[in-house]
Write a structure and sequence with these properties.
nine-stranded antiparallel sheet, alpha+beta, 616 residues
């Protein structure tokens, strides 16, 4: 058994078994299995009690696990059940046995440690597995990767319905599951759409939009969904999404394709922030006549269409149809990307009894693809744009830990970097001035959105802290709208965010999305700037200027001498001997050289750090 090889792709069952074999204790094995076989997050595991286990089915016995509402806040979970996860029978018995042998009461926590400690526990297990099987890829497997393994096994290996996986795993949207799904083969595509084919195997209606009546069906067993074939429409949609160069181009292309192949009316509208109004962007079909007939307004105050939510569900309206013009009704679907809402996709049809389960699922897929396409084109346009728009936002939302703490302690937080670690959880690296780390830690203990906090370094006038933060934030929301964050500073109860986006970006959509999640936020300024481009040669030259001759020589000798290969072709001692220096001297040059290399890559504009003193 060789364990998991990262060169072969994501963690597989062989690698997972190797990790389980690396567990030294029953407790460690349970934590790994809860991540990899139940799909729990560390914060959810930390909140588990024996009472969370319950019987789902008596014969044969099947078990579930009530996952408490933790707001990603770790042990301080509420009693409210967020969802019910599925627990394999042998794992349920193991959890019961563990609770009994350790005299853990029904309402006592099975693992009374912090979520951070559980993440570290998983890391210790994977490190042992890596050493045991001489496989470095296992060492990089985290609790997040184990949760992704659960999703891949459920969706790909066992072909469980994505709706079920989404529900038991606590994913907020279907796009969060898409990375785990393999591209379908031709056989899978044919099999998936087999129920949509009429019994006669004749042509389906999608292209000419001529509804099939019961008299036309062979065998009399057809349904409304059998008259809807999205295959040709979906192929054209995919092509349109790949070719559209702008946000507006995507909206226009999608609506045109939908009305060409499947519907009488299609529109996309976005939320704006002027009062409660919504702004119609794109309509295809016969908008004035059909919208009036359907009794639906997609612009102006008091729109009948509800504001988009984060639930990727199709909303059907039939009772609002004023006459028989749209006998099949209309459907509206939020266009989502992550936690960001780009607007609403709406379609109307004459087909009676339209929008069956398969058609709804297809519409949800279309809306998700549109959301991904919009996010991608925003990032692409920002990357290739010669000019950018610099934006400055102010947010005073009291739900933010940093806003609240800066006001209470009269201190200042400056964001150095933001690193995603798992779904809904990010590492914030902050420079803190005006207060002590201990004062910040006291406030962290009383909030649920900060899972953990530790000191990275201390300076004469402040410190650098790492925060494990769960949930949305103004910074994350802006990033999901394709905005690049340049600076984020919080002081005196207000966060000032400086960011940039492509010059053709619709700023109102970004502001609307931010204020939907954080109402006490506003755009205070914007200006168009010429983008300065750094060539590869300029980057290389800048790095050379930062490295000393000895640092560059040490890095070159170590790199070409195979010190960074796996397995290593040379030891540090061999490199040091070849260079005629001591091993500690070589390590010192390598560490400083690596620091400058990473600093140049991650933060080329960072000013010189203030004089520091060790925090240890």
């Amino acid at each position: 058994m060789n364990g998991h090889d990262s060169s072969e792709g994501p963690l597989d069952s062989t690698g997972y078994d190797a990790i389980l074999d690396g567990a030294d204790t029953f407790r460690e094995a349970l934590v790994v299995r809860l991540c990899g076989e139940v799909g729990l997050r560390p914060a959810e595991i930390a909140a588990l009690t024996p009472d969370c286990l319950r019987l789902l089915q008596e014969e044969p016995p099947r078990y579930g696990l009530d996952v408490r509402m933790v707001d990603h806040g770790g042990p301080s979970a509420s009693r409210e059940v967020d969802r019910t996860a599925y627990v394999p029978v042998d794992l349920e018995r193991s959890l019961r046995r563990y609770a009994t042998s350790n005299d853990i009461g029904g309402d006592s926590r099975l693992f009374p440690v912090t979520p951070r400690r559980l993440q570290m526990l998983v890391s210790e297990v994977t490190t042992r597995a890596s050493e045991k099987y001489d496989n470095p890829s296992l060492e990089t497997v985290s609790s997040s990767e184990l949760r992704r393994y659960f999703a891949r096994q459920a969706l790909v290996e066992h072909e469980i319905n994505p709706r079920v996986v989404k529900a038991v795993g606590g994913w907020h949207s279907f796009e969060a599951l898409e990375p785990y799904l393999e591209p379908p083969t031709a056989d899978r595509i044919v099999g998936a759409f087999a129920p949509l084919e009429p019994a006669s195997q004749g042509a389906a209606v999608g292209g000419n939009r001529t509804p099939q009546t019961p008299d036309d069906e062979t065998g009399g067993g057809g349904t409304a969904d059998s008259a809807f074939d999205p295959r040709e429409c979906h192929q054209s949609l995919t092509t349109a999404l790949l070719e559209a160069p702008t946000h507006e181009g995507i909206e226009t292309a999608v609506c045109d394709v939908l009305t060409d192949f499947a519907y009488e009316l299609a529109w996309i509208d976005r939320s704006t922030i002027s009062g409660d109004s919504r702004e119609q962007r794109t309509v295809s079909g016969e908008p004035e006549e059909l919208i009036e007939a359907a009794g639906v307004r997609v612009d102006g105050p008091g729109s009948d269409i509800e504001a988009p939510s984060l639930e990727s569900n199709v909303r059907i309206e039939r009772d609002s149809v004023a006459d028989s013009t749209l006998e099949g009704g209309i459907a509206t679907i939020p266009i989502l990307y992550g936690d960001s809402v780009y607007g609403v996709l709406g379609v109307g049809t004459e087909r009676p009894n339209a929008f069956g389960e398969d058609e709804r699922a297809w519409l949800e897929t279309v809306a998700r693809q549109v959301g991904h396409a919009i996010a991608a084109v925003r990032r692409r346009n920002l990357l290739f744009s010669d000019t950018v728009v610099e934006l400055e936002f102010h947010s005073r939302d009291s739900r933010s830990f940093f806003v609240d703490t800066s006001r209470a302690l009269e201190c200042r937080f400056a964001l150095d970097s933001l690193v995603p670690v798992e779904e809904g959880t990010h590492l914030y690296y902050m420079r803190v001035t005006g207060t002590t780390p201990d004062a910040v830690f006291d406030r962290v203990a009383n909030t649920e959105r900060i899972q953990d906090c530790r000191v990275i370094d201390t300076y004469e006038d402040g410190s650098r802290l790492e925060f494990v933060v769960s949930g949305a934030s103004p910074t994350l929301t802006l990033m999901e709208y394709g905005v690049t964050i340049l600076e984020s500073v919080t002081e005196a109860g207000s966060t000032t965010i400086t960011a940039e986006c492509a010059s053709d970006t619709d700023i109102r959509t970004i502001v609307g999305g931010l204020r939907r999640s954080f109402p006490d936020s506003e755009l205070v300024s914007k200006r168009t700037l010429e983008r300065s481009v750094q060539t590869a040669q300029a980057f290389h030259t800048g790095l050379e200027e930062r490295l000393t001759d000895r640092q560059e020589a040490s890095l070159r000798a170590a790199y070409f001498g195979g010190y960074y290969d796996w397995p290593r072709e040379s030891t540090a001692e061999e490199i040091a001997d070849a260079m005629g220096v001591s091993s500690p001297t070589l390590h010192n040059h390598l560490r400083k050289g690596q620091h400058e290399l990473l600093r140049t890559f991650f933060d080329a504009d960072t000013v010189e750090e203030p004089s520091r003193r060790s925090s240890r």
